[in-house]
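Table S2 (continued). Query chain:
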Amino acid sequence: MENQSSISEFFLRGISESPEQQQLFYGIFLCMYLVTLTGNVLIILAIGSDPHLHMPMYFFLANLSFVDIGLTSSTVTKMLVNVQTQQHTISYAGCLTQMYFFLMFGDLDSFFLAVMAYDRYVAICHPLHYSIVMSPRVCAMLLALCWVLTHTVALTHTLLMARLSFCVVGEITHFFCDITPVLRLSCSDTHINELMLFALGGTVLIIPFICIVISYIHIVSAILRVRTPGGGGKAFSTCSSHLCVVCVFYGTLFSAYLCPPSLASEKKDIVAAAVYTVVTPMLNPFIYSLRNKDMKGAIKRLLSRRKIFSS
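Corresponding output:
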């Protein structure tokens, strides 16, 4: 473990090298970050304060909002500080810490979306057994399983990165310590890291995605069997918000991390990562609040109570 003495910091290039563009992006990302915090905090408070939303679907939605806050905070805040102070560096320990939280929160997003898809599958395909299958105990176990698995994967990648040597202070061609740009700077053999990145990274992305696809195949087939006029549309409306979030999340995620290097430049990778880490968490509260009548009503009641108390 002599690598820690090799270097003490990295240089983060950021979104742009132009000072004028940096200030422009600083304002844009700061606004998006504040909107993300406000929207997701409102979701959490609305679900926690409304007894009508104390159901498994909204329980996992509240956790998804918390994870979205963590995902954006783990990547954007350091970039905002660097632009403000004009010191585009991050310490070695800070880089590994940022990488750990980014991986953990990013994987949690994927797992929670899969769990929410399973919840909708049980609710639509097996409504009579819903209260038993998605009992509070089962929900707590699913939540704990998601946290344990993502913590293990993130910690594995971080510890493997910690064993590498970095002989010079390198420039990370990104606005945060993503695992692939940091690997390019190592002067050690990175084959094990790349192998684990392919194995674990592909697993935590593909398996939840497959579970979501299978869940929606069963949901659609069950809806098509509904004979009641309008019954199928009403059933599908309960998962339309989740399906929109899934499309936005995996669309940006796959474009950022599964696109071959020959087909995507570094700038495109940075843009896709920015959409994945900033834009998607910002859009999630709007998607759920605008397309879900229960959430919209809960947020209105929450805001009206705040106005009464403030007055």
